[in-house]
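Much of what follows relies on a compact textual record of a protein's fold. An example makes this concrete, so a full record is given next.
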Amino acid sequence: MTNLSLPKKPVDYFRNITTLAIVVAVVWSLIGLEIKWERLIDLPADLFLIGTLMFGNMNIEDFPNLAGAMWESISIAWVGTLIAALFAIPLSFLAAENLVGRPIAWIIRQVFNILRAVPEVILAIALIPIFGLTPLTGVLAIGIGSIGTLGKLFYEVIESIKKDPLEAADAVGANKLVRFRWGVLPQVMPEMTSFVLYRFEVNIRASAVMGLIGAGGIGNDVALALRFKDWEVAGMGLLIVIGGTILVDAISGAARKQIIRGTSAKNLTPVEV
């Protein structure tokens, strides 16, 4: 009786080369950072010292001013997000290849890529000579910087819409405007709204960073406190930033879940036109 042996498993050269390249890149990056690994031994003691300075003797009288500054940061993030959505929504329809030609979509997508590549801090620095160290600078920086991200998310949603409502609208002889109103918008607006709320959560953190360069919000108070070594104020400000961000994230997250749940529970049916 002949012994049958299983064939040898072929060598996956692509996977092996890719894994080796990743390992080399990681090692090269760690070497290039010039990390002083011996300092890690002192890290727990340093963190304890900083924590004691910032949270060991906080003054409750600083809370009202810092809470007001945090509200300003939230307001900057909200207005900036609305400005971004105002521009990103119409542009995203021009970036969807299933609605417009590929050349037009490609041009609009490059605009989104450029806006998404520039950090909000750089935009704020560029706007400071025009608008000064004011909350308006932070609002515009966040608004311009968010157009690229929201636009990309929006046109991907548009390109994934179902064709059934569009075919139903075409079957009854609907014009392009009616076709867009009843075949496209009902499918994309819930997810677009969810993405706007998500971007608002991200922009709250960005607005706090805006304050570090003087563009309004609680970041300005924290930066000044750290500069003058007013550790108690900096600690109180940090706690307010963490608490405010968690609170807004919880409220926004619950709203987004409700929007998504409501959308999935509804069946898109043809509408008489």
Remarks:
- Confidence is low (pLDDT under 50) at residues 267-273.
- The CA atoms of residues 134 and 215 lie 5 Å apart.
- The chain has eleven helices and no strands.
- The radius of gyration is 26 Å.
